[in-house]
Amino acid sequence: MAEPFPTFPDGFLWGVASAAYQVEGAVDEDGRGRSVWDTFCAEPGRVLDGATGAVAADHYHRYREDVALLRDLGVGAYRFSIAWPRVVPAGSGAVNPAGLDFYDRLVDELCAAGIAPAATLFHWDTPQALEDAGGWLSRGTAQRFGEYAAVVGERLGDRVRMWMPLNEPVVVTMFGYALGHHAPGRALGFQALPAAHHQLLGHGLAVQALRAAGCTGIGIASNHGPVWPASGSEDDESAAETYSALVNWLFADPVLRGEYPAPELTALIPGPVAADLATIAQPLDWFGVNYYRPTRVGAAGGGGERDVEGAMLPPGLPFEPRRITEYPLTDFGWPIVPEGLAETVRMFRERYGDALPPLYITESGCSFHDPDPVDGRVPDQARIDYHDAHLRALHRAITEGADVRGYFAWAATDNFEWAAGYRERFGLVHVDYETQRRTPKDSYHWYRSIIQR
């Protein structure tokens, strides 16, 4: 018999999450500008089955129905993202009133349902006009991002409880600019590092703009996970440290320490780095961790993987990923390692100590190829098991002293899963993409029971 589900601290925030391009659709409506993902999806061979986010889960038109599902779920917060090209179609200059009006209505609907709005300002959908001018390789994009943040903060700051300027800058840097597997599809290798720096600079400028607009509850949603050496050899341990510096500390140290994790990285960063770091390290009210899995890494030349989620690694790297074979996999092929979430929380506590603000798990979830609904039911016990095990691991970290104040399940509904199209399903609610019918899965009902406790 399973151990009783643990009791989380009073005030622990239960939420779910989504992202604009993955759910909204309506890409050509009401003055929205073109994004890099619109362009990327239109290029043959970029996305599985030629899928696009043109309709997705049609959240733009069905947000009231979706908020009603969230209300019945009982969540305390809904994490959504605001589409930069819907609000500022060219990325700078004229503001689109219809775009702001949509998010105004969504926020009001959430507040009326007793759900705290938690807004992400950038979940990967850079306006194409800015990409044409250099995108995140250009310092100007960071400046434009701060201006956009000011516009949104002025309009929604009186009601949004939590703010995340950035979502997973590591993914934009690695998959969008270094490997080319995501929009904007550039394959620059280590020449992508300016994209990391300019996103972080944009984050700092956005925090300043939000504060100036009177906003509170400001953090970030950053992807992190343990990096395990393939063996105890010095070469493998060194490779794992290098990889962790690139995927973890390159994106956390500037925000939490005001520095890059290694002088070799600092030397590759353009611009007035010291002044930029002072801007990047704006004090935060909390820090958000998106956790999905650990990574195993060995020294180059050890017969490891050259393919990471469909993206081929360039030659000459000082490390290579190795498969994690001792854990079960999601249908996306990701290892299911609940203790990795607790390990991630511990490594943040150890690295930053008293400088670490309160943590939220701003994403955790899994894709399983769920069956179609039958008699209004979608059985997805594997997803229940995933969240159950990860929450238990998180609770253990909290009992050890970690200040973790909330958990956002990814995702609220099934959605467009970037380069994987619509094959992968992460949602607690099943979406029939032909009819847009929503069907709560068994995991939805389980999560509701957990929240009610």
Automatic annotation (TrEMBL):
It catalyses: Hydrolysis of terminal, non-reducing beta-D-glucosyl residues with release of beta-D-glucose. It comes from the Bacteria. GO terms for molecular function: beta-glucosidase activity. It holds the Pfam family Glyco_hydro_1. Its EC number is 3.2.1.21. One of its GO terms (biological process) is cellulose catabolic process. Belongs to the glycosyl hydrolase 1 family. NCBIfam families: BGL. This is Beta-glucosidase.
